[in-house]
Amino acid sequence: MKLNFKFALVFILSSMITLSAFSQIVQPAKWKVEFSKKDVKVGETLEVLIKGDLEDTWHVYSNDFDPDLGPIVATFNFVKNDSYELVGKVIPINAHKHYDEVWEGEVSYFEKKAEFRQTIKALKANVKISGSFEYQACTDVSGRCVTGEEDFDLALTAKAGTVKVAAKEAVKETVAKKEETKEVVAVVKEEVKADTKDAAPVEKEKKSKKGLWAIFIAAFIGGLIAIVTPCVFPMIPMTVSYFMHSGGGNKAKGRMNAFFYGFSIIAIYTIIGTILAVVMGPDFANFLSTHWIPNVLFFIIFVVFAFSFFGMFEITMPSWMVNKSVANEDKGGFMGSFFMAFTLVLVSFSCTGPIVGSILVASAGGEVLMPIIGMLGFSLAFALPFTLFAIFPGWLNNMPKSGGWLNSVKVVLGFLELALGLKFLSIADQTYHWGILDREVYLAIWIVIFTLMGFYLLGKLMFSHDSPVKHVSVPRLMLAIATFSFVVYMIPGMFGAPLKALSGFTPPKSSLDFDIQSMVRNSGGSGGTHQAKINAKYSDFLHLPHGLQGYFDMDEAKAAAKAQNKPLFIDFTGHGCVNCREMESNVWSNPEVLRRLRDDYIIVAMYVDDKKKLPKEEWVVSNYDGKTKKTLGKINANYQIEHYNVNAQPYYVLLDNEGQALHTPRAYDLDVDAFVKFLDEGIKNFKNGTSVAL
């Protein structure tokens, strides 16, 4: 079966991910909320005007059509108080109406300008109104739709015939002043660190460089893997044939065209990374890595690609796009080389798509350079053999011929796609506490997948398009041995083994239903001191690793620290934080670290991506951005930003009973000895009453 409906399935899924991601970063409308009058008396009515300036090609749906049609209608929420009362409903002003064939009904929307009005009656001289509204904006150019939410806070005071209106602009000015103050504080903090010879900024820079090199190397390896896929490998002879004739007998000209061809491949992929780098930011990265929509859709896309690699169907780019690119190859020269490269990118997408997507997801850390470096590394490895074979066509005679081995590579990639796709579903499962993929379920699926892959490598499992395996080659046997060894390694993880090598991919051990180590520890059979269970807030769905007991609410943890006269160990972490799991598995599990955390500190884990919505009385208005934080994760993330000017995890802070820092905070670092020293110095400073400036 062939997907000749113009790449519909993957294109739609990819578009949905893009739409979800852009809902966090695209701002198609700028809103202003104000009163219609500057003078009002008690008992009189006036209007709250909600006006929006829309970007070109975008439209915002109104609130006066059937919400069951499909588009999200605008909704408004006014916080009630005794200074006013609502009169009627929110009325759209001059909205366009038309019958929409997609939604099969009449919809109402705004273009360029949007305006809603709500009539109110003043009950007091001082009228205070606050609330929020949600809306959906769409554009027909790219088919994208985004949802937006805006808060407003108005005050109207009648005094001696004058009125003072404090709308959202005043809030923005206040936030701007706070930002300026933060910048000054940040400068002072850096000066203090410099005076105390703190090496944290240098370490951070080194780690940043290491991170860039790591993503470059991983992407480069991904590019090399992409070359041996069935979509790409057969195109090498075609490329060589093209460039052997492109120079018209002039070898120098042919080689120049080949160089430009390789440069074009690198440029096309790197431009993709650059565009994503421009639109990506911390909000996008957080949304992409923790929200259920992109993670579930990434999971579906990986499964779709896996089924395609197994031969269930074939994914192709739209024929018109490929044909148009191929037609332009005949122009020759640099233009022909560019379209030859563009054709390669299009035709090979069904095999390179999941690899490229994995690189972009891995590099979505909010840093502008990450996706650019990632795509540069991938494209460099991807373009290298094509360019070299185009320059030295004689090498082609030494290459293995295309055949059944290429299909085997594709099927193995299918097994890997199926296994790695579970990681995205697992993140959504942990973040929203669905309970679908507990650790033993996740490992059971992986064990089955890699067992089947091992049988496939031995020729015991075949698909309809596979060639018969008459004998097993030595490389194939070695891969089968490695695969079955990996399966054997995972089996103890079903019963509580830490599986440190997989700590960044598997769900936490706390989700295990049958953990032998925990059972022995809880029964007092371990050699260490047994720690009594704490009935802490949120402990019904949040847990610490390795049987540690602690808290998940800062106020509760501070109270416990004072009561027990112990310092506080703050762990800023996240359900979708791979580095956090690696730290817990490789550093926290060390007996010396574990003993200090258990006996010497009060632990509080601050999950910054948890989606638990808190009661209204626990909501927090951020001093950082002026927005109201309503979920546990957003409140914890805001706490980290406001107090430490950091939004990365893991991040470890040591405090005394009065909230004073005992040591410079630490981030991701797998050096166990350094972490032990970090904890020991915190204890020493706590006993000596010494604090450090942050």
Model description:
This protein is α+β, with helices and mostly antiparallel strands and 694 residues long. It is 48% helix and 16% strand. It contains 20 helices and 18 strands. The strands form 5 sheets. Strands 4, 5, 7, 8, 10, 11 and 12 form a 7-stranded antiparallel β-sheet that branches. The chain has a 4-stranded antiparallel β-sheet with strand order 2-3-9-6, with no helix packed on it. Strand 16 (620-621) and strand 17 form a beta hairpin. Helix 3 (200-227) runs antiparallel to helix 10, helix 6 (282-290) crosses helix 7 and helix 13 (439-457) packs antiparallel against helix 14. It is globular. It starts with a strand and ends in a 6-residue tail after the last helix. 35% of the residues are buried. Residues 1-25, 159-207 and 524-529 have low confidence and may be disordered.
Q: Which class best fits the helix and strand makeup?
A: alpha+beta
- Binned, the helix content reads 40-55%
Mean pLDDT: 74
| C-alpha geometry | globular
Our Rg estimate from Cα atoms comes to: 30 Å
Helix count from the secondary structure assignment: 20
How large a portion of the residues is in β-strands, by DSSP E? 15-25%
- The stretches of 5 or more residues where confidence is low (pLDDT under 50) are 1-25, 159-207, 524-529
Q: How many strands appear in the DSSP assignment?
A: 18
Distance between the termini: 62 Å
Strand count, sense and barrel status of the largest sheet are: 7 strands, antiparallel
